[in-house]
Amino acid sequence: MDPFDECSVLLPSATLDDFPTGGSDTDARSLLAGWTVLWHPQLLARTEQLPTWYRADVAPTPDGPRVVVVPDSSQGMVPAEYRRKCDANPNCIWVAGADRAEMLSVLAIDSQASDLQPLQHESRTIGVEDFYAAGYLSLQIQIMTRRLRYTSNLDELHLQSRIVAAAKAFCDRDAAGTAEALHDVFDCLSEERDHYFTSDPHLVDLTLLTPKVLRDSIESGWLDRFNELARCENESAGILGTPLNVLLDGDVASAIVNDASEKGDASILAPFVEALGKDSVGWAGGGSASDPESESNCLDAMTMAHAMSSFREGSVLAEQATKQPPVVYARLSGSTPVDLIPSLTAIGYRGVIPMDFSGGTGYGEESKLLIRSGNIEIEALTAKPIDASSDAAYLSIGAHMGEAIDGGEVATALLVHWPDKVCDSHRDLLRAASWSLAMGRFWRIDQYFTEGERPYHSGHLNAVSPEAADAIVHQITTASSPNEQLANLAKSFVNSVRDEAAQVTQSIAELVRPALVDQDQRQSPVEKIATAIGENATGTDEPTEDLVCFNPHGAATRCQVQLGGAPDDADYIYGNSAARSIRNIKNACDSTIDVPAFGFTRLRGGNAIKGAGLLKRFTGKAKDIAETAVLKNEFMAVSISEESGGVSGVYSASRGNRMSMRLNVGETLAGGRDGGQMLCREMKTVESGPAKGVIRCRGDLCRADGKPIAGFELQYTMHRGSRFLHLDGTIQPREPFPDAEGLFKRAFSVRTAVAGEASVLRALVRDKLHSTSSRRLVSPLGVLIDEAEKQTLVCGYGLPLHRKVGDRFLDTVIGVASADQKPFSFQLAYGFDCPNTIAAARSLIAPPFSIPLNGSSNGKTHQAWLLHTGSPDVHVTQMQTARRSDGRLACRMTLVQTKAKTAKAKLQFATHPHAAFHADPSGIERVLDELPETVRCEDGTVSLQLTPHEAADLIVVFDQ
User: Fold this and answer.
1) Residues 6 or more apart from 735 whose CB is under 8 A from it?
2) 706: number of CA atoms within 13 Å, CB side?
3) Domain count, the chain
4) Calpha distance 55→661 (Å, rounded)
5) For residues 567 and 884, is the Cβ–Cβ distance under 8 A?
6) DSSP state, 466?
């Protein structure tokens, strides 16, 4: 084997200080391959010295036997004369190539040669790759030293002697000698780093998975390679651990559970589950499985209680799949909002990776932070993910880690990739980490949070997900029927709100009368609430002379009910009027009443309905609500355009025209211009009376040139004493529409316009009011348009997608043009200056329960509250009662502070509370001795402080 005088690489930089840090993957791959290929043991043994480097534009004369490596990025910088000199020297080998394999081919090195096969020393397998790893580590240490302006203390002579000794021992097949010498090499590089950094960086390898990717990868043999690379520490053999991690999203966990249920041990996924139980393998997960046909996994498209429930369901699913409780929460798509952090800790999570890996969002400026929400904090890995398949990301990873340590961070490199999709530099880093901590320690993800360095700095996560709109748009546009998908999303949200209202109703009834917990559970919530207050429900919807109306929301609401005869006079009865005839009911009455928060109004009818008095007739208050093209009540007048069928103006008090509304179509449908035209063909007053007014409009929605796009029917409804205008609509496309790129370009929407150009949009996300600067919003509960002296609530009954247009317009997507020409319907409501926005929006979707009663002779009109929160901004959105093992009644409830300010909640119940605490993994069975003082229970009142937008998962234990 003939020796070389020198092996060198020509770099496209003047010094290592300005070594490239970016560029294309191809250039980076070639550059890093050019550096590391020269650390091949055969080349080191033949030169008996370390490889060197030169500037590509001023390389020295290539005399004698030598190897010159020229990466792709250096090719254009090498003088033509230098290349000619190299070609003229028969002993000079000019090496170029896209990667190490191509360069080795030019060097005529046969990787299959017997003297290059791996050696086994104790528990370690030593191969050529270990020399590449030493070369890569040497480069990164030198770049780190220079980039951070430190003085090098590297003993290059010692390093050279030991790497050459290792190379010769390897070529001579001396495993023990090779291992000893390589240990010295890596120790030498570690000592150089320790001169300026004593703490070790953290490395986390995370493999992303989907059900299909997992199956395909297992079939291709990935799992065997994965298990081989994932190693535990072996201190006696001098092997450092290189644990690997996987992201077990909800869909993957669901696939594992379903496959195991169907095939048992024969499941192709069974070996993967077995691998998850190894000490060298970690996993993060806990996301819920997706349901593409109806629900969305987008947390912004859920209620607060639904989002918390999805966390619990995802945790259970992950534990079923792995037979281990999850410790670190993460999911493939969708970031983690800050207000859900307490829910994670209550389940038992110790850490969170709050990123949306699919959308590339959710990371922060620092690697590891403490995230606080209310009185709860959790550690979060917020490092910007490094694409482990990209060599460009590994050009200066050492300097990046050094800068993080310099800045006082918990320096962490989150190395993310799909199975087997990693670059050579990633393999070099993994190999180097088994010898030395110079570039950091690889961590199992759960131990990273439970045993790793605790961060000093606090951070913040978004409350409204920036990628939520993209996720909803994708779910709608990729469905076989986009309009059915949009309707399913809205229906799912509406059902969640209504189910929560029913659950709150049932739980309050069981707290009022605890015996109901132990009785027949087939009784409906409305029957239970009637029983709890000492009444007997008829079990039908037919009106009677006696009725109770229960409000399951956190603010008083006004509603309209029907009963036989007028009720007894009371301050909370806003108005009565004769109703249309009702079967089996004489003297039918429409009664407008107020119902207290979490309380009831009980009506005793049978009285004569009084007509409008002289004063009301004189002031006009006795007029019917609907007139020609106008709906009017005590709070507002709504003018409906006879030309377009849209709302031309809303007038309240002395504020002038505050809002208008029309149907809108995207520019693809409108003929190149956003908007379209509405032409009303028919306007009819459907119903007009003192309690209710209804106007219906029919017409066409046309292109800019007048060609009809779709027919429409809009029905406007207003009630006595109400702050709401209700809109029910149907769109009938006139012709099939070809697919167009972008949902909003082919969307039908309702465009709301307000008068002020300085309006602020506030999204109602997870039962809280959030300010947002995003143009596209996911807010199925609605959007509040906040102006200086007035507020307009736009509630879409679960329609999730809204868009801000200009300074004054809000588009609510109601449908998407498609080829099937099927008609679609929608609901919308506008609330004007509603005192409590969240409760108002929820009560539109889940109005108070109207319960006809079997009357009794001693029945009378009265009202009362059954649960009191002590703050108008604090809402209870979910409640569930159960008996503890000690026989005490317990209630788990979700308290939501709806606004961005602190609030003091003082909960009072119909049953005396014994103790209260924030939920934790022990649930309602927690021992009641020495409870934290974050929640106080004194004199029948449960008190706690809620921070801005906090959602508290609270458990109250009662005496009974």
Assistant:
1) 709, 821
2) 0
3) 5
4) 68
5) no
6) T
Q: Concatenate the DSSP letters of all residues of 501-549 into one string.
A: HHHHHHHHHHHHSGGGGGS-TTS-HHHHHHHHTT--B-SSSS--SEEEE
Start-to-end CA distance of the chain, whole Å, equals: 91
Joined together, the tokens standing for residue 638 give 């709504």
Whole-number pLDDT of residue 738: 63
Residue 530 belongs to a domain:
no
Can you state the angle between helices 525-532 and 482-512, rounded to 10 degrees?
A: 20
Q: Is residue 854 a contact partner of residue 544, using CB atoms and an 8 Å limit?
A: yes
Q: Tokens 């209804």 — which residue? A: 694
Does residue 804 lie within any of the structural domains? yes
Report how far Cα 214 is from the mean position of its chain's Cα atoms.
23
pLDDT of residue 617: 47
- In degrees, rounded to 5, the angle at the alpha carbon of residue 390 between the alpha carbons of residues 386 and 395 is 80
User: For residue 614, what pLDDT is reported?
Assistant: 44
SS3 697: strand
Give how far Cα 672 sits from Cα of 367, 701, 704, 804, Å: 46, 15, 8, 19
Looking at residue 861, its pLDDT comes to 84
Q: Within this chain, do residues 774 and 804 fall inside the same structural domain, yes or no?
A: yes
CATH number at 230 reads 3.20.110.20
> From CA 723, how far away is CA 123, in angstroms rounded?
76
* Residues 262 and 245 occupy one common structural domain: yes
Of 194, 227, 262, the last residue of a domain is: 194
- Quick check: 935 and 905 in contact, CB under 8 A? no
- What lies within 8 Å, CB to CB, of 129 at 6+ separation is 427, 428, 431
pLDDT above 90 covers a percentage of the chain that reads: 64
Query: Which of these ranges, 137-146, 214-223, 545-554, 612-621, has the smallest mean pLDDT?
Result: 612-621
The answer as to whether 482 is a domain residue is no
Domain shared by 283 and 402, yes or no: yes
**Which stretch of DSSP H or E encloses residue 317?**
helix 304-322
Is there a single domain that holds both residue 709 and residue 821? yes
Name the pairing type of β-strands 791-795 and 783-786.
Answer: antiparallel
Residue 403 contacts residue 140 (beta carbons within 8 Å): no
CA distance 230 to 366: 27
Alpha carbon distance 190, 153 (integer Å): 11
Q: For residues 568 and 572, give the distance between their C-alpha atoms in angstroms, rounded to a whole number.
A: 11
SS3 at position 246:
strand
Same domain membership, residue 594 and residue 735: no
With 0-12 CB in 10 A as exposed, 13-18 as middle and 19+ as buried, what is 11? Answer: buried
Between the alpha carbon of residue 10 and those of residues 63, 65, 101, 791, the distances in Å are 15, 17, 18, 67
- Tell me the CATH number at 668: 2.70.98.30
| Cβ neighbour number for residue 154 with a 10 Å cutoff | 17
In whole angstroms, what is the distance from residue 29 CA to residue 701 CA?
A: 57
Tokens of 437: 């901590």
| 282 within some domain | yes
* Euclidean distance between CA atoms 38 and 550, whole angstroms: 80
Pairing between β-strand 791-795 and β-strand 376-381 as defined by DSSP bridges: unpaired
Q: How many CB atoms lie within 10 A of CB 232?
A: 15
| Total length of the chain | 960
Domain holding 728, by residue range, is: 623-845
Both 780 and 858 in one domain: the answer is no
Domain boundary among 428, 461, 494: 461
**pLDDT tens column, 407-431:** 888 999 999 999 999 999 999 999 9
CB 583 within 8 A of CB 864: no
Q: Within this chain, do residues 820 and 680 fall inside the same structural domain, yes or no?
A: yes
Residue 893 dihedral angles phi and psi, to the nearest 5°: -140, 155
Residues 71 and 85 in one domain: yes
